[in-house]
Design goal:
The protein is an alpha/beta fold. It folds into three domains: 146 residues, Rossmann fold, CATH 3.40.50; 137 residues, Argininosuccinate synthetase, chain A, domain 2; 37 residues, no CATH class. Helices cover 41% and strands 19% of the residues. A five-stranded parallel sheet has the order 3-2-1-4-5, sandwiched between helices. Strands 10-9-8-13-14 form a five-stranded antiparallel sheet. A four-stranded antiparallel sheet has the order 6-7-12-11, with no helix packed on it. A hairpin with a 2-residue loop joins β13 and β14. α1 packs across α6 and α9 packs antiparallel against α10. The protein is elongated and about 85 Å long.
């Protein structure tokens, strides 16, 4: 295939799919391939990806493996959690939020090595192709994108394996069989979908879950923790200051052992179809509850309700791949402004799949016990003021009621 592509940066995991893509790019486009493998906290050893790339003819200086866990949590996960973002009211966006970071790194490498194209392994049915490519174009408008799953004629695992074997690509014995479901993982979550999960009427088998124990198997005694916040971001657990990635790692461990963070969801993909996914977000589930807990005493009612109003729009932008869009950045500026005094501590009770806020305190708390107490005391609230307040708010209702009575005769 004649091509003007000379060098391409591939998002490379070292697995069967991306190894086949690497060789396919070499043979189809006749181009030099540069690989990028990100450590996002997926829990897999990444050095095998380096060795596999070398076996496929990639020069050592063109193999990029980078630990981006701290950047991932600090610059992507935490900003999203300041918004309390949930897609369709439930999904904590674990896969969605990782794609713009991977795309950004690919573009940075492309500039560094003089590549004229980037490539990814997302299929033509899913959301990830959109997320990757919108990010590529936002950062490098004229970049060429190669999406093999939209171009080649390989349509089954058997065909991928046959291609791999014909090009001497090593395949682990446990990878030769048909996988019961597909998995995507990073420090925030794991996502499982396909195969045994395709029928939404059937409960997911227990072996699907990898990051949490079943709630019924969790300890019979509650675990109490205190999460400290500064300007909307979690900074400590039980008084111990932790980096963003270390903090999320600790919360993941606490969530796992208490059976917290499972979600079985049928969602609406951006490309138009519904899909069923099983998500595990143990640390993120705890973090969301804790963040809402500290906001409950530090945010004014108007600010809190405005945040809740814009949250679905913000979450949808991330889900659909518009992280680098001006509207997401505008919403982020508004959200970050709201977090300036979201500082303090939240005490949480973890028990058999549940997270409860049982205490919260802040030097900037708006909670005034004198105002809400049922006891008499020196307060700034006069009960008699409520009568005029109610009458003013009832004015339009009384007017409507009078009209209704006239119509009824």
């Amino acid at each position: 295939m004649a091509s003007d592509v000379k060098r391409v940066v591939l998002a490379y995991s070292g697995g069967l799919d991306t190894s086949v893509i690497l060789k396919w790019l070499q043979t189809t486009y006749g181009c030099e391939v540069v690989t990028f493998t990100a450590d996002l906290g997926q829990g897999e050893e990444l050095e095998p990806a380096r060795r596999k790339a070398e076996l496929l003819g990639i020069r050592p200086e063109h193999i990029f493996i980078e630990d981006v866990r701290e950047e991932f949590v600090a610059d992507y996960v935490f900003p999203m959690f300041r918004a309390n973002a949930l897609y369709e009211g439930l999904y904590l966006l674990g896969t969605s939020i990782a794609r713009p970071l991977i795309a950004k790194k690919q573009i940075e490498i492309a500039r560094k090595v003089g590549a004229d194209a980037v490539s990814h392994g997302a299929t033509g049915k899913g959301n990830d192709q959109v997320r990757f490519e919108l990010s590529y174009y936002a950062l490098e408008p004229d970049i060429k994108i190669i999406a093999p799953w939209r171009e080649w004629d390989l349509r089954s695992r058997e065909q991928l394996i046959a291609f791999a074997e014909s090009h001497q690509i090593q395949i682990a014995k446990d990878k030769r069989g048909e996988a019961p479901f597909s998995v995507d993982a990073n420090l925030l979550h794991s996502s499982s979908e396909g195969k045994v999960l395709e029928d939404p009427a059937i409960e997911a088998p227990e072996f699907v879950y990898q990051r949490t124990i079943a709630p019924e198997d969790a300890p019979d005694r509650a675990t109490y923790i205190t999460v400290g916040f500064e300007k909307g971001d979690a900074v400590s657990i039980d008084g111990e200051a932790l980096s963003p990635a270390a903090l999320l790692t600790r919360l993941n461990a606490l969530g796992k052992e208490n059976g917290i963070g499972r979600l079985d969801l049928v969602e609406n993909r951006f490309v138009g179809m519904k899909s069923r996914g099983v998500y595990e977000t143990p640390g993120g589930t705890i973090l969301l509850k804790a963040h809402r807990g500290i906001e409950s005493i530090t945010l004014d009612r108007g600010a809190a309700h405005l945040k809740d109003d814009i949250m679905p729009r913000y979450a949808e932008l991330i889900y659909n791949g518009f992280w680098f869009s001006p509207e997401r950045e505008m919403l982020q500026a508004l959200i970050d402004k709201s977090q300036e005094l979201v500082t303090g501590e939240v005490r949480l009770k973890l028990y058999k799949g549940n997270v409860e806020v049982v205490g919260r305190s802040s030097p900037y708390s708006l909670y005034n016990q004198d105002l809400v107490t049922f006891e008499e005391g020196a307060v700034a609230y006069d009960h008699r003021d409520a009568a005029g307040f109610i009458k003013l708010n009832a004015l339009r209702l009384r007017t409507l009621g009078s009209r209704t009575r006239k119509i009824a005769g």
